[in-house]
Design a protein that fits this description.
The chain has 3 helices and 4 strands; from the N terminus they run H-H-E-E-E-E-H. By secondary structure, it is of the alpha+beta class.
Length: 76
Amino acid sequence: MEKAFKFLRGLEKKRRKQISQIFADILNLDLDHLDVKKLQGRDNQFRVRVGKFRIIFKKQKNKGIILDIRSRGDIY
């Protein structure tokens, strides 16, 4: 999760604010308004599409755990 926050700090302010809100939604598993897809071949891992970025997370009990965020071409 530290890698994800480090990546986030390198973004422009507007994009950082948008993705920070999405991080909060993922942590609370408020996923109804997000573009979420289960990752094939990975147990209980999902991705959220945010423009050219992808956020990888997993569901654990009643919360989400952010694993990584990167540009689309670098994450898969």
